[in-house]
Amino acid sequence: MNKIGFNVLVWSAVMSDDLFPIVDRLKSIGYNGVECFIGDDDTPAYKQFGDYTRSLDLGVTAVMVGTKDENPIDKSAIVRKKAIDRIRRAIDKAHDMNATIICGPFHSGHSIFSHMPPQEEEYKWAAEVLYAAGNHAAQANITLALEALNRFECYLCNTMEQLSKLINLADHPNVKAMYDTHHANVEEKKIPQSIHTISPVLAHVHISENDRGTPGDGHVRWDETFSTLAEINYDGWLTIEAFSRNDPAFANSIGVWRDYSEPWAIAEQGFKFIKEMLKKHENKIPNQ
């Protein structure tokens, strides 16, 4: 059975006990878990958050991004080694939080472009970094779920076809893929085909509207999405990812220049929407 999560980035990218009242309310709405951003800070706040969510019987997933100075596809082997070390540190923090998944586009530096299409050598470098990180993730019983982004934020993996290629190159049981409805809305021509393409390695799903506001209020092809997820028997997390200007530093880093919907409206209406879509498509079965 699918679990429904909510990414607290709509309020803050900083891990602290300021998130506790938010977690309480998400629990009261009915969410099964929360998703948090893993930054470069090294504080006990991650373990404290994990202890708190465990006391509420809430699951935890995490998200992170790649950076310029620790870019897995940099030409420098030194920089690529730094990328491995950074992902390993993130795995340790995720373990402190009791997280089971780290998702995100950390296969390459976020919004770092080479002014060329992705090169085979870059896929090879990313796969090597992810394989090494996968070994560390296996020790913590954590799955790395890599994300394809739209062309304005990434060039290595924009589509499920490219992401599938990378995951297969990494060839590690703890290195899987994530499907994000916002990015797919930009890059994929046929939603069912894209989900079937990534289904063998799919470990996580972000439910995100085309404008990053309330799921169901925009033009993402939700019926196709939920119907196909039912067809492939996906039973993992369905986590809402929405953004706002509440954390200006983070918002600036990802190009969020306006508020799309009020955060608690997103949380409350988004939860109802996912429940409705799951019920609507619960009897869908693969074509025989």
TrEMBL record:
Domain of life: Bacteria
Signal peptide start-end: none
Gene3D superfamilies: Divalent-metal-dependent TIM barrel enzymes (3.20.20.150)
Pfam families: AP_endonuc_2
InterPro entries per record: IolE/XylAMocC-like, Xyl_isomerase-like_sf, Xyl_isomerase-like_TIM-brl
Classification via SUPFAM superfamilies: Xylose isomerase-like
Segments forming domain Xylose isomerase-like TIM barrel: 23-262
PANTHER family: HYDROXYPYRUVATE ISOMERASE (PTHR12110)
Name recorded for this polypeptide: D-psicose/D-tagatose/L-ribulose 3-epimerase
Originating species: Albibacterium bauzanense
